Amino acid sequence: MNELDNLRSRLETFARERDWEQFHSPKNLSMALSVEVAEIAEHFQWLTEEQSRELDAAKRAEVEQELADVLIYLVRLADQLGIDLLEAARRKLAVNEAKYPADKVRGSSRKYSEYD
Amino acid sequence: MNELDNLRSRLETFARERDWEQFHSPKNLSMALSVEVAEIAEHFQWLTEEQSRELDAAKRAEVEQELADVLIYLVRLADQLGIDLLEAARRKLAVNEAKYPADKVRGSSRKYSEYD
Amino acid sequence: MNELDNLRSRLETFARERDWEQFHSPKNLSMALSVEVAEIAEHFQWLTEEQSRELDAAKRAEVEQELADVLIYLVRLADQLGIDLLEAARRKLAVNEAKYPADKVRGSSRKYSEYD
Amino acid sequence: MNELDNLRSRLETFARERDWEQFHSPKNLSMALSVEVAEIAEHFQWLTEEQSRELDAAKRAEVEQELADVLIYLVRLADQLGIDLLEAARRKLAVNEAKYPADKVRGSSRKYSEYD
Questions:
Q1: Closest by Cα among D26, D105, A6 to C59
Q2: How close is the nearest chain C Cα to the Cα of B98, in Å?
Q3: By CB neighbour count within 10 A (0-12 exposed, 13-18 middle, 19+ buried), where does B86 fall?
Q4: How far apart are CA C85 and CA D69, in angstroms?
Q5: For B56-113, what is each residue's pLDDT tens digit?
Q6: Which among B8, B76, B64 has a CA at the least distance from the CA of B39?
Q7: How many CB pairs under 8 A join B and D?
Q8: From the CB of residue A99, how many other CB atoms can be counted at a distance below 10 Å?
Q9: Looking at the partner chain, which of B28, B38, B44 has a beta carbon nearest the beta carbon of D38?
Q10: What is the C-alpha separation between D113 and D108, in angstroms, rounded?
C-alpha cells in the first residue's frame, strides 16, 4: 500500500465512523475542494509574485494547513469516484512530457499558455 | 523516496528542462490550482448529488484528467513552498480525529458544518 | 449615469483615496473575485439543493455580504479593464436567447449542459 | 426599475421559458459562479500583474465574455435568494468607507490585507 493509499484508507475510516459519508457526494466534495483552494489563493492575492516566493514561517505554516485540506479533499474525491489519483497524475505527466518537448518550448510563455 | 515525492521530483525536472520555473511562483500556481479545481466542479455543477455518484465511464475518464491536473499543481506548489504535503495532511487528519470524536458528532450535519 | 456606473465611480474614489490602486491589477482582482465567490460556495457546500433554496434569515444575511463583495470586485475588475459590464451581459444574454430557442431546449438537462 | 433589475427580469424570463428553473438552486448557481470566475482567472494566471493591465483587444474581448457570464450568474443567484444585489453592495461599501478611513490606511498593504 503506497503512502497516498494509506491516507485514502484513513480518510475512509474517518468518514465512516462519523457517518459523514452521506455528505461526501462527488458534487459536494468538488465544492469543498474549491473552497479550500480559495483559502490558499487568499494568502497570495495581494502579494507580488516575488513576495509569494518568500513567505515568513508563520504565513507558511498557515498555507501548509490549507494545502493539507486540499490534499485531503482531493484524495477523498478520487476515492469516491474510484479513481487512482497517483496513477492518473503519472499518466498525465507522461502525456505532457511527450506533448511539450523541452527543446521546442524552452522558456516560451506563449507555448506555456498553450500548454495549459 | 515515497510515491508523492517521486512525482514531485519528476515535476521539478519537467519544469527545469523547459525553463518554466519562472512561471511557477506560488501566487501563479495557486491560481492554476483554482482553475483546475473549477474544471472538476464544472462536471458536477448541474448534476444532482445522486447523479454525481454515478458517472458513466466516459465522464469519469474526463474527471480523472482534471483530478490529475489538480494533484500535479498541488504537488508543485507544495514543492515551491518547501512543504511536505503528505506529512501536512497526516498531521491535519490527526488533529481532526481528536477534535471530532466519532461518538459525539456521528451523523450530525450541524457538527459537520462546524467541522469544516 | 446608471446605477452600476455609480457604484463603479464610488469604488474608484474609494481605491484612489486610499492609494490602493496599486494592488488592483486585473490579475489580483481576478484572484480576489475567486476568493469571494468561494465564500458564497462555502455556505452551500454541505446543503442539499432543497436546503439551499430555504436559507433562514441569519444565513441569508451572511450570504448577502458575500454577494456584495463579489459584485464590488467584479465592477472594479471591469473598470480596470475598461469593460462595460452591463452592456457585456446584455449582449451575452441576447446571444444565448438566439442560441437556445425555448421550444427546442425546454426542460432538457442535456441541452442545458451543452448550453453551459 | 434600475438597469440591474432589468437584467434580473430578463434572466428570469429566459430560465422560465426554457423550464431551466429546476437547475437554478442557489447551490448549483454558486458552483456555476465559481466555474465562470475561474475562466476569468485562467486568462491571468501566467501573466505578470503588468501584463494583466495591458491586454490586447482580442484577449480583452474574451475576458469580457467571462465577466458577462459572472454578472449573469450573480444576478440570477441574488434573485433566487431574494437579495437586492445593488443595495447590498452599496451598504457594504458604506461599511468599508467607515472602517478604513483614508488617512489611516493610505498605501498600506498590511492594512489592505487586513481590510480584505
A1: D26
A2: 22
A3: buried
A4: 10
A5: 999 999 999 999 999 999 999 999 999 999 999 999 999 999 999 998 888 776 656 6
A6: B64
A7: 33
A8: 10
A9: B38
A10: 9
C52: left (phi over 0), alpha (psi -120 to 50) or beta: alpha
Q: What's this model's pTM, rounded to 2 decimal places?
A: 0.95
Cα distances (angstroms) measured from residue D26 to each of C46, D33, D52, D77? 12, 10, 31, 6
Q: Cα separations (Å) of B1 from B7, B76, B94, B111, D11? A: 10, 16, 23, 38, 55
The residue type at A14: F
Q: How many CA atoms lie within 13 A of D78 on its CB side?
A: 28
Q: Which residue has 444565448 as its cell numbers?
A: C96
- Please report where in the chains the cell 449573469 appears, as a residue: D72
Give the residue carrying C-alpha cell 437579495.
Answer: D83
C50 touches chain B (CB under 8 A): no
User: What b/e readout covers C63-94, taking b as 16+ CB neighbours within 10 angstroms?
Assistant: bbbbbbbbbbbbbbbbbbbebbbbebbbebbe
Q: Is D99 left (phi over 0), alpha (psi -120 to 50) or beta?
A: alpha
| Amino acid residing at A58 | A
- CB distance D93 to C4 below 8 Å: no
Residue of D nearest to A109 (CA): D46
Chain C partners within 8 Å of B48 (Cβ): 49
Nearest by CB: B116 against C46, C112, C113:
C46
- The interface predicted TM-score of the complex, written ipTM, equals 0.94
Cα distance between residue A33 and residue B74, in whole Å = 12
In this structure, what C-alpha cell is assigned to residue B10? 519528476
Which residue is associated with the grid cell 490529475?
Answer: B68
Instruction: Please answer whether residues D7 and C93 qualify as being in contact, where contact means their C-beta atoms are separated by less than 8 angstroms.
Output: yes
- What's the pLDDT tens digit per position in B44-64? 999 999 999 999 999 999 999
Altogether, the residues listed in chain B come to a count of 116
